[in-house]
Structures are given as C-alpha cells and as structure tokens.
Amino acid sequence: MTDRYRRLSVLVGICTTLFSVGVRANGDEYYRFNALDAAATESQVIFAGSVKDADGNRIEDAKITISLTVPTARGGKVVRFNAYTNIAGRYRSYDVGSVVMTLEEIQMDVDPASVELTVSKPGYDLVRTFNRSKRNQKKGVFEVDFTMAGIDTGSESDR
C-alpha cells in the first residue's frame, strides 16, 4: 500500500468516525453522536439509557421523569420534565440546565447527584435502576438503565 492510499484510508476512517456514528430505530435516525456533540455535552448534564423487562426485552413508550429542586426567591421549586423510550427501549433527556433556564429563567450549575430519575409505564413496576455513569462525573451524558417487571393482574385479558 502506498503512502498516499494509507493517508487516504486514515482520513476516510476519521471522517466516518467523526461524522456518521448514529443509531436508527424503525428506519428513522434516533440519535447521532459525533465530535461536535462530544464537545457540546462536556458542559451539559444529559441522561440517557434503556428500559427493559427482566427478560431483556425493550419497553417502548416508558416515561422517564427527570426532577430536581432549583433555588428561587421564595425557596426551592421542583422542576420536572419527561423523556420517553423509543421503539428500541432507549431514551435521552434534554440538558437539565437548559430546561431549568427555559422553564424558570434560572441559570444554574446542575449537580447531577441532585437530579432524580423515575420511570413509569402502565402495567409495569420498577425492579432495578442501574447507573452506568462514572463515579465522579460532573458533566456530560449519564447512562442510567431501568429494569421493569409486568404486573400480574390475574388474567391475560386484563393486560
């Protein structure tokens, strides 16, 4: 392989890695991650992950509620917003600080430890929450996965 082709193949590999890494769900682009996203998320607090049942099957349309208490002139106020799982059982929240700024017009440095995530889906109960994030991580994408179990209602027709 000549030096020219070697450099060209390295360039193609770099461009492919930086600009076309993405996930498709049901034929639609669900999420694309590239170098520009990596730089942007370094100053953000974003939650992403999956919701599955105990057998590992993905759960679509589960609601993940992200909540935290923000300081106001009248004391603390709880801010909540939701993310939903797609067909692949994956979710991704907006940047928590941006949501607080949009809803309450308060600019704050979000401590990820103060953010609470809950998951709900009719017919299911939460079994386990698994935080895959780095122990001392303060910014970026925090991966939190949930395992749920179907509620036994006694008959198949009730589900």
Walk me through the structure.
This protein has three helices and nine strands; from the N terminus they run H-E-E-H-E-E-E-E-H-E-E-E. Helix content is 21%, strand content 41%. It has two domains: 41 residues, no CATH class; 106 residues, Immunoglobulin-like (Sandwich). The protein is α+β, with helices and mostly antiparallel strands and 159 residues long. A hairpin with an 8-residue loop joins strand 8 and strand 9. The strands form three sheets. Strands 6-3-9-8 form a four-stranded mixed sheet, with no helix packed on it. The longest helix is centred in the N-terminal third of the chain and has 17 residues. The protein starts with a helix and ends in a 9-residue tail after the last strand.
Which key phrases capture this entry?
159 residues; alpha+beta; Immunoglobulin-like; three-stranded antiparallel beta sheet; 3 helices; 9 strands; 21% helix; 41% strand
| Major sheet: arrangement of strands | 6-3-9-8
Question: At the fourth CATH level, what is the homologous superfamily of the largest domain?
Answer: Carboxypeptidase-like, regulatory domain
Distance between the termini: 61 Å
Average pLDDT, all residues: 79
Which assembly state applies to the chains in this document?
Answer: single chain
State the major sheet.
Answer: 4 strands, mixed
Q: What global shape is seen?
A: flat
Helix count from the secondary structure assignment:
3
Helical amount:
10-25%
- If you compute it from the alpha carbons, what radius of gyration comes out, rounded to the nearest whole angstrom? 20 Å
Strand segment count: 9
Can you identify the CATH class of the largest domain? Mainly Beta
Fraction in beta strands: 35-45%
What's the order of the H and E elements?
Answer: HEEHEEEEHEEE
